[in-house]
Amino acid sequence: LADTRYGVFLLCKTSNPGAADLQALSIGQGEPLYLRLAHLASIWNESDNLGLVVGATDPAALAAVRAVAPDLWLLAPGVGAQGGDLEAAVRAGLRADGLGMVLPVSRGIARAKNPRAEAARLREVINRARQMAKGDVGVHPGLSPSLAALADDLLEAGCVRFGEFTLKSGLKSPIYIDLRILTSRPDLLAHVAAAYIPLLKGLKYDRLAALPYAALPIATAISLQ
């Protein structure tokens, strides 16, 4: 890494079926190993010559890594023969500038009946997703600018996390939502409360009820609006 003539792609969350055996192991507070590695890689990337290998077969992992490492280049194998969804992978892994991904597709093109046509189709899918990432098409389709900003703020605050989580029900989930963090972010709590107001208009009620614990401060904040 000290030699800026060279670049390195570090294995992070690979596309092979057994990747989760080690790379998704929890190393504390529900954080999987691959996300800790992504965080460290962002710190190590002092010369802008370090990237990460994150399989296109796992868009949730791509999105989680991109959230932790917003500037790194991602090498994302797995499209085609391994079953990776190209469009889902591109949307999950692109940087905000529409760049930041290398997508190797070898067998999918080489074994196609018309390799030229298949390559052109894949290029079109990639470019369409890049345009969306750059804002030519809404990045948050269906959301108002205010709600889109709220979604981004919740993600940045750690209220929404991506990884491998075991819920109280015992079910596995790639997403964990922890709104208890809002108690230490009064500005964000007020924004969340404000988002509920349009939903409550037109309803007749005497009291607000909230389930402990995360919903209690939200209900209080709504009542103060």
Automatic annotation (TrEMBL):
One Pfam family here: OMPdecase
Domain Orotidine 5'-phosphate decarboxylase span(s) in chain numbering: 5-121
Molecular function, one GO term: orotidine-5'-phosphate decarboxylase activity
Family: Belongs to the OMP decarboxylase family. Type 2 subfamily.
InterPro entries xref list: Aldolase_TIM, OMPdecase_type-2, OMPdeCOase_dom, PRTase-like, RibuloseP-bd_barrel
Taxonomic lineage: unclassified sequences, metagenomes, ecological metagenomes
Pathway assignment: Pyrimidine metabolism; UMP biosynthesis via de novo pathway; UMP from orotate: step 2/2
Catalytic activity: orotidine 5'-phosphate + H(+) = UMP + CO2
Protein name in the entry: Orotidine 5'-phosphate decarboxylase
Keyword Kinase included in the entry's annotation: no
Gene3D superfamilies, A to Z: 3.40.50.2020, Aldolase class I (3.20.20.70)
Keywords: Decarboxylase, Lyase, Pyrimidine biosynthesis
The protein's Enzyme Commission number: 4.1.1.23
One of the protein's GO biological processes: 'de novo' UMP biosynthetic process
